[in-house]
Structures are given as C-alpha cells and as structure tokens.
Design goal:
Number of helices: 12
Strand order of the largest sheet: 8-7-6-9-10-11-12-13
Structural class: alpha/beta
Shape: globular
Distance between the termini: 47 Å
CATH architecture of the largest domain: 3-Layer(aba) Sandwich
Radius of gyration: 19 Å
Largest sheet: 8 strands, mixed
Helix content: 25-40%
CATH superfamily of the largest domain: Glycogen Phosphorylase B
Number of strands: 13
CATH class of the largest domain: Alpha Beta
Number of domains: 2
Amino acid sequence: MEAKAIGIQDIRTADHLLQPNKQIIRIKRNHGLGNVVCLLPVLDKVHARDVHVEIITSATWVDAFSEIRPEFTWLGESNEEFIDLDYLTKNRPPTLHRTDELGLLLGEEPPFESPYVKIPQRWSQKYKHLRDCVLFAPEGGHASRQWPVEHAEHLKQHLDGKPLVLIGTQKTNDIPCDVDLRGHMQLHDLWGILAIASVVITMDSGVLHLASALKTPTVALFGGIDYRYRIRPNQQVIALQSDLPCCPCNKNETCNDRFDCIKSPTTRDILNAVDLVQHTDGRIVYSVHTRRKPLQVQSGILA
C-alpha cells in the first residue's frame, strides 16, 4: 500500500492523526534541513504528552537525527498514513517563526522553545585540529540567499589568524580559505565541526539552524525573509539584513530577481558582526541593518 499524504484540505478532518489522546503521530518533512531542526521543539512538545513521534525525512539525515532524538522514530520512507508538512507549507509565504508555523499545522499552540541539540563528542573528534576556526557556508540554495562571491574573497585575510573553513553541500565557487570541506561532509560531520567553531558565517540556510541549535555564535546574512521568522530572541545570532524599503518582502519580490538585499552587506559588515557576536551572552539577538553604508546595530530582545 502506498503512503497516504494528508493535505491541507484533509488535515482539518484527520482528527485521528491530531487528537491529543492518540498514541502515535507520523509526520513527513523532507524539504529543508533547517526546517527539520525548527520542527524539533514541536515534536518535543508532542512527545511530552506521551505521544510517539515518527518522522519521515531524507534518508541521508536519518542516522544523525536518530542519535540526537532517539526517542523519536526516524524513517527514510513509510507505507503508513502520515501528515505531509512538505505539502502543507509548499508556496506558503512566511508570517510567523517557522517553528510556530509548523506547530500550528500540527495542532500545537505556541510558545515553543528554541531548537537545542547535544551531539556525541565523537562527531567533532576528526576536526579537533580546527577548534575555534571560523566556518563559512557560502551557499544558500537560491539567488535571494547568495552573498556575492567577490565579497567573500576578502574574508580570509581579515580574520586575525583564525583559520577560515568552508562548509556546504557543493563547491560552486573558488573562495580563499584554509580548508575547504564543501561536498565532503555527511550531516554528523557538519554538526561535528559546527560544535567546535568559534563563529559561523552563513546565509539564511540550514546551517543557520544547525549552528544556533548547538549554541555556536552565528552571523547570518538575510535576503528578503524577515529574520524574526527564523531567529528566536534568545539565540546567539547576529542577523544582517538590508534596510532597503522593500526589505523584508517575505517572498513577495518587486526587484525583478536582482535581490539587492543580499548584496548589501560588505565584507567589513561581516567582520564587524563576527566580532560582535562573540561578545554577546547568548540571550540577545542583534539586528544588523545595512545598505552599503557603515554597520548599524540594534540590540535588545526582539518583538
């Protein structure tokens, strides 16, 4: 029997999948590694009601997530009935933090905790010689989340001697660095090196959520998505986002695919943010607004 996906029309009547007294809930989330991380606080809340959670996700992620949340069942596929969160969020513009959106779709009311994970120490062992490095994940998966490579080329020479290590799923551009690990890492490797870095520089991508869930100081470059829909106020993250009048547009672009917003931060903006994020106490998010002018910082608990 083929698996049956519960779509947006069905989920309102699929009470047998959402009732609080059910003993098991099956959920599919394949799209976006960061989305799976954002889903964890929702699943933790469901599990706290003594409901067993089964997650259908990318087969390449199953082993790593099974160690991080062994109380859930992680599957690469299933022949059972499930709630398809990929379908339910397809082409859905953001209006809330991603965790809250996913929670409400599953009948769980906010608030939710920020994602948090502890990883096995052995995942970091092979990278111990790179401890306190600066990690840079240059790829964002879409032009609206792609920082110009000409800016990235200047990072290495201004990091005060800390090694610059590149991470990501594929090597798309040559960027000066000390170590290039792009295209050579499984999920447990990625989490392992994120855990021992001094700071992570990333786009609005899965790496942002992996790093912040480990409480590693993170600098995140945002395009048109409102950073408040991705970062919780208590996460040690500096969000760089343009102060162009159209930004954030939250996927309602008016720029004819120019994506000026992601091009706005300069190398100096990034370096200033790298220094700032290492001096936060982990309870404040700094909002950094740029438009090809000197860095401006707003600090405080965000609404």
